[in-house]
Amino acid sequence: MQLKSILIAFFNGEEIESICLPGIEHVISITCGPTPASLNTATASLEDDPSSLPKVHIRTYTLKLLASGTRIPRIELVPMGPSLDLMMRRHLPADAELLKQSLKRPKLKKPDVEKGLGKKVKNQGVDEMGDLRGRIHIAKQDLGKLQTRKMKGLRNDSDESDEDLPPPKRRKI
C-alpha cells in the first residue's frame, strides 16, 4: 500500500475524461507480482523474511497505431525500455500518530478564510488547503515596438525608415 501511494503520487498527472489516441506516445506499466499467501493474513510479519514481498515490474512501451477497419485504430505496445524488476528490501510502517498528522487536512472553508482577508480583493483566492493564491494578468507585448540597436552593417538601403534620415555629413580633409 505504501509503494502504491508513492508511485501514484510520483506519476500522477492531470485527471482527464477523454483521450486522443494519436497524442499518446509512451505508456508506463507498473505491476506487482503475486502476493504470497503468508502476507494475506492480518498477522503477517515482514521482519522475518523481507524477500517474501512481491516483486514490482516497471515496463515502458511506445504505442503503434494500426488500421483496424473501424473508426478506432488497433493499438500495439512496442517495448521501449528501461524494464525494471524491483524488490522491496526494507519495510518500516510509519508511526501511527505521525501518519495521522500528515494525512490531516485543514477544516477551513473558503468563505471563512476570505472573511479573514477583509473585503473581497480581486484576483486573490484560497485553495483547498487554505493557502492564499493570487493571479497576475500581463498584457500581450508588442515586440515590433521594442527598441533594438541598429547596426550600420545590417542596414538595408531600400528601408523606408532610412529615407527620412538626412544624408551623412562629409568631413573636410
List keywords for this structure.
173 residues; alpha+beta; two-stranded antiparallel ribbon; 6 strands
What does this structure look like?
The chain is built from four helices and six strands. The strands form two sheets. Strands 1, 2, 3 and 4 form a four-stranded antiparallel beta sheet that branches. A hairpin with a 7-residue loop joins strand 2 and strand 3. The model has no long low-confidence stretch (mean pLDDT 77).
Would you spell out the secondary-structure blueprint of this structure?
Layout: H1 2-11, E1 26-32, E2 55-66, E3 74-79, E4 84-87, H2 96-102, H3 110-116, E5 124-126, E6 132-134, H4 160-163
Antiparallel strand pairs: 1-2, 2-3, 2-4, 5-6
Q: How much helix is in the residues?
A: 10-25%
**Rough shape?**
extended
Task: Extract low-pLDDT stretches.
Answer: none
One letter per element, helices H and strands E, the order comes to HEEEEHHEEH
SS summary, helix count: 4
Query: What share of residues are in beta strands?
Result: 15-25%
Number of strands: 6
Give the N-terminus to C-terminus distance in angstroms: 90 Å
Q: Structural class, please?
A: alpha+beta
Task: Give a short account of the largest sheet.
Answer: 4 strands, antiparallel
Mean pLDDT: 77
Structure, briefly:
Helix content is about 15%, strand content about 20%. The protein is α+β, with helices and mostly antiparallel strands and about 170 residues long.
